Structure formats: structure tokens, C-alpha cells
Amino acid sequence: GPAHLFRLAGKCFSFVESTYKYEFCPFHNVTQHEQTFRWNAYSGILGIWHEWEIDNNTFVGMWMREGDSCETKSRQTKVHLVCGKSNKLAYVSEPSTCVYSLTFETPLVCHPHSLLVYPTLTEALQRKWDEAEQLLYDELITDQGYKKILKEIFEEAGLLKATEENEVEKQSKKITLEFETVEKCSKEYKQLSEEIKKLRVLLGQHGIA
């Protein structure tokens, strides 16, 4: 993400609301501590630093996911970054069960270009984005296709976590790329068939069905 925000790493900011104290440690986690004298007062993790939320070439929030379990899912928190005079956790809410929303004020995001995604990318990824823009302009790809390319760029840059489906797709692509010709495929198939035969014999010798 934006390099100037890294100076927040290693620091923590707290916010107290009624009996709860919330603590946000950028690029680390979000925690909640119940400040009561009950023997089983809640103290736990509302999310661990996971990925950015990106909209319209802008970093709009930080997702802290995979916190403590909550019924059937894990607690997660979205941190909204807004311009403010000092670094402080300004507001906390729970818009839906176990999904929290934090507002973090900081002067580091006051400049209109401070949260742009494009400048944070490598030259190679910027070129990829430029090409996608050109393809969209020439109407060679749809808006949906353009968004898909951008998502891949953000995943490659490590700004977004790739979904499991994408990972599986990538792995299967790697495998298919190994067989550039039918001959190579046939050769590989023969070798695997021989290996299976040997394994069957070996299993038979040990009386394993």
C-alpha cells in the first residue's frame, strides 16, 4: 500500500465506548476488551491485517479479517481512513453481527493523491494497467473484463488476497502449460501409466487391495 502510511506500523490507537475499549494497530490487528469486573469479561481479536479495499483507483479501507470465531464465522473489521488533524480512532460500530466498522482519522490521507493505488505499483504492473485502459478505450474488452484485469493486478501487487478459486485456477494453468504438444502429453501419460503399474504390483506384494 501507500509507503507514507507505513509510519503507522508498530503503533496502536484506542477508543473507549461504554464498557468496551477498542484498539487498532495498523498493519497488525484490531482488538476489543470489555472493561468490567465480570469474571468472564470479553477480550479478543476483531480481525488481523488482511488486505485493502480498493474502489475507483483509491485505497478506501483496510480489511482486518479472521478474528475470533463468532457463531459460524470469524469476526472481521473494515477500517475507513479519513482526513483528520491527528492520528486517532474516532468511531466504532457493528453494522452487522461480528462485522465491525472503524473510522481512523489521520493527516497522512489529507492530500488528494495520498490514497491513489497506481503510484504504489511497480512499473511492470503500471504498464499492465495502462494496457488495460487502452483495451477498454478501444472497446476491445468490456467494463467487467477491465475490472477483472485490475483485480488480478491488485492481487499480484499483494494489495488483495487471491481467493482459493483463483489459486486453484493458477495451479491448473501451470499444469496445462507443461504440455505444449500432444507428443509431450502422450509421453507424460505413458510414464504415469508405468508408475501406476509398478505401484499396483508393489501393493499386491504386500497384500494391500
TrEMBL record:
GO molecular function: transferase activity
Function: Non-catalytic subunit of the N-acetylglucosamine-1-phosphotransferase complex, an enzyme that catalyzes the formation of mannose 6-phosphate (M6P) markers on high mannose type oligosaccharides in the Golgi apparatus. Binds and presents the high mannose glycans of the acceptor to the catalytic alpha and beta subunits (GNPTAB). Enhances the rate of N-acetylglucosamine-1-phosphate transfer to the oligosaccharides of acid hydrolase acceptors.
Subunit structure: Homodimer; disulfide-linked. Hexamer of two alpha (GNPTAB), two beta (GNPTAB) and two gamma (GNPTG) subunits; disulfide-linked. The alpha and/or the beta subunits of the enzyme constitute the catalytic subunits.
GO cellular component: extracellular region; Golgi apparatus
Keyword Transferase: yes
Pfam families, A to Z: PRKCSH (PF07915)
Organism this protein belongs to: Nesospiza acunhae
Annotated MRH domain residues: 10-112
This protein's name: N-acetylglucosamine-1-phosphotransferase subunit gamma
Subcellular location: Golgi apparatus; Secreted
InterPro entries: DMAP1-bd (IPR010506), Gtb1-like (IPR039794), Man6P_isomerase_rcpt-bd_dom_sf (IPR009011), MRH_dom (IPR044865), OS9-like_dom (IPR012913)
Domain DMAP1-binding: 117-209
Keywords: Disulfide bond, Glycoprotein, Golgi apparatus, Secreted, Signal, Transferase
Matching SUPFAM superfamilies: Mannose 6-phosphate receptor domain
